[in-house]
Amino acid sequence: MRLTPMRYKDYIWPYNPATYSITYERQVAVHKVPFGRYCMQDLGLGCRIMRGQGEFSGKDAYGEFKRLASIFYSGGPGLLIHPLWQISNAYFTRLKLEQEPRPDYVRYSFEFRERYDGYNEELSALGSSGGASTAAAKSARQENACIVVSGDTLWGIARRWDVPLESLLKANPGIKNPNLINPGDKVVIP
What we know:
This protein is an alpha+beta fold.
């Protein structure tokens, strides 16, 4: 079975990293109280951290690493698409050479931190009027749409319609989890 390659923004890995891990964190504050006791306060979930290691080998291995480094330097969040894990909007926070690079072999490690957009969604929901004119404008923009059938993925729909996945997600704000679409769902094609 050949997995689809990992992607971040416009960069597509020539072959997937060898290792990949996701860390889920919950922030908890511990407060000391008199007589050797303590109390704990749940501060909520932290961001997911995606780490991994990989290798580039072949004639242009160091050139491939430099292309990945240029994406690191571009800054800002982007979609991180892994063939098996959840798609996430993430920041590229670390890129490290694990050894002295050679022209034909580079071993590296990386780290991404997930961006949480829930605050913006909650604020926009509080500020929107939700009137009939908003619904009419929204339906006027929905020129193309497709109905999800069994076996469809958002990535597959984006490729089939030749639309960037980022644009597809922006056109469908109701899709909260890009990895979870069901047969019968309507997907707006921008």
